[in-house]
Predict the 3D structure of the following.
Amino acid sequence: MARCPTHRVLDRLGDKWVSLLLKELGEGPKRHSDLAHALAGASQKMLTQTLRGLERDGFVSRFVTPSVPVRVDYALTPLGERLLPVIHAMTLWAERHIEEIDAAQQAYDLLENSAP
Amino acid sequence: MARCPTHRVLDRLGDKWVSLLLKELGEGPKRHSDLAHALAGASQKMLTQTLRGLERDGFVSRFVTPSVPVRVDYALTPLGERLLPVIHAMTLWAERHIEEIDAAQQAYDLLENSAP
């Protein structure tokens, strides 16, 4: 069950920074410093860990230019590119329906708290 | 950031049992006992918690028939129905690409472990 393909993919996308990073890189290759700037809320450690995970999954490629200082660029792989439309569909759905979800949660909590 | 609509929705769908339950209910309303049977790997507590969460989000309705013993049925709400196509698209994508992800992970681990 834990190895179910859908769950494994959804679990990755549910990660706080994964879908944001993929969307950033959907605009084109970026330097590590650009990504750090775009994901200002993420710690340096979290950003590096998330990028490594995406690299390991085969969604992102890393290019190291041995200059001084070392320059590191990231880009989507073809697999990462193919994931983008699914992320965009999910993003659109979430944005369109989040108010409805919020309203449902508020109604539920109100009912729970007023129960005898 | 944590309140970003996309992240909140993806986070829910990444939950081990959420997408499975929604897919089960996509076939039509089901009794609590049928869902327990379909999700045989989930504990009773986990199943109940997940169903409550889905009810709170407005994806699932619960119908209680005051018989002896009490009969409890669950069904997708219209909002839950509208989420199904997105889940199906994600499932299809995951099933089609999981081998590619597995291969990427194996290649990455091999390279990491062989690094000097």
Observations:
- Chain B has a mean pLDDT of 89.
- Chain B has one domain: 5-114.
- The interface with chain A takes residues 1-2, 5-16, 19-20, 41, 55-58, 79, 82-83, 86, 89-91, 93-95, 97-98, 100-101, 103-105, 107-109 of chain B (CB under 8 Å).
- The first strand of chain B starts at residue 30 and ends at 31.
